[in-house]
Design brief:
This protein is of the alpha+beta class and about 180 residues long. Helix content is about 40%, strand content about 15%. It has helices spanning about 95-110, 115-140, 145-180; strands at about 10, 15, 50-55, 60-65, 70-75, 85. A 4-stranded antiparallel sheet has the order 3-4-5-6, covered by helices on one side. A two-stranded antiparallel sheet has the order 1-2. Helix 2 runs antiparallel to helix 3.
């Protein structure tokens, strides 16, 4: 061993010699009320998993399954039993800035090996999900008689549709680049 090198138990020549460890790495207690539902009993053996707890002790768990190419978010404050899809590092849930930043970061880490095409398609999926939220709000009885809100929703939908067209052009460009490469 040379100066500056440390011997680490389980390491031999800079490599782990025992890839099948024993015991748990992380166990987290549910901090939410019973009304939040049964917390998920998640396994992280085959998927990327990240945990976050905000200042209010609300818990979030993100998993990305690279085989299925699917991201999922559980947010205890929204109900453990209603996980939501994560697309392009975001979701249709209303999240704090800190939660959004965390989710975007863990998405980036989890999907770092995915293709450019995958990332653009994920943005298209998120865009479509956002459009659906606004379309659902347009028909919601709470907003039926509020012309200002109706117009705001319609402007948002039109903006998202323009964004979707730009995404489709980016995708076409990426696919044509891939075909040449």
């Amino acid at each position: 061993m040379t100066d500056g090198q440390a011997e680490v138990k389980g390491m031999k020549g800079g490599r782990m010699n025992n890839l099948e460890g024993e015991g748990r790495v992380l166990t987290v207690t549910n901090r939410h009320i019973k009304g939040s539902g049964e917390p998920p009993d998640l396994k992280a053996d085959e998927v990327y998993t990240a945990y976050f707890e905000n200042d209010y002790r609300e818990q979030l768990v993100f998993q990305y399954d690279s085989k299925e190419k699917k991201g999922t978010l559980w947010h205890g404050d929204y109900g453990w039993e209603d996980p939501v899809d994560v697309m392009a590092g975001a979701t249709t849930l209303i999240l704090s800035q800190e939660e959004q930043t965390w989710l975007a970061l863990v998405w980036r880490v989890a999907t770092r090996r995915e293709s450019n095409e995958f990332h653009i398609l994920s943005e298209v999926d998120l865009n479509q999900a956002q459009i659906k939220v606004y379309e659902d709000l347009l028909t919601h009885p709470t907003f039926q008689d509020d012309e200002w809100v109706q117009e705001a929703f319609k402007r948002s939908i039109e903006s998202l549709r323009r964004q979707r067209e730009k995404l489709r052009k980016r995708l076409a460009d990426a696919l044509s680049q891939e075909g040449r490469g």
